[in-house]
Amino acid sequence: DVDALVAVYTPPINTGGEDVANVLAAIGEQSDKPIVSTFLASKGIPVLLRVPDLQGGSAGRGSVPSYASPEAAVRALARAVNYAEWASRDHGTYQDSEQYRTGDAKTLIRSVLELAPRGAVLSTEQVHFLLS
């Protein structure tokens, strides 16, 4: 029943945190759930929490991002959830640009701008023509 994990690590005095980072990295690689952290007040993905992508360059799947505060980590998760919800919606179908009469639209706009170089309000007929 867990949707995501927010790991908040507050290092004790004179302790690095490498062990915690290693555990989080191992969990991140194996988990299909999103994991974010507040880790040593650092932003981005610390080297220990980074799983290289296939090309070995940037952070890949399984990396655990670290934020300066728990609020920032939760905000990042919320944005990811919002994006996933948006991406799962039906956004219609792609229309091939050859179906559009862009030349007619450009001609209309040019003719309007010749009469009113700073722009003008289009008539209802012009709007319908442009949007058709």
Brief digest:
The chain is mainly alpha-helical and 132 residues long.
Chain-wise SSE layout:
Layout: E1 5-9, H1 18-30, E2 35-39, E3 66-67, H2 70-88, H3 102-115, H4 124-131
Parallel strand pairs: 1-2, 2-3
How would you characterize the overall build of this protein?
The chain is mainly α and 132 residues long. Helices cover 41% and strands 9% of the residues. It contains four helices and three strands, in the order βαββααα. The protein has a three-stranded parallel β-sheet, sandwiched between helices. InterPro entries: Succinyl-CoA_synth-like (IPR016102). One of its GO terms (molecular function) is transferase activity. This is GNAT family N-acetyltransferase.
Comma- or semicolon-separated keywords:
single chain; 132 residues; mainly alpha; 2 domains; 41% helix; elongated
Main pleated sheet: 3 strands, parallel
Shape: elongated
SS elements, strand count: 3
Number of DSSP helices? 4
Content-based structural category: mainly alpha
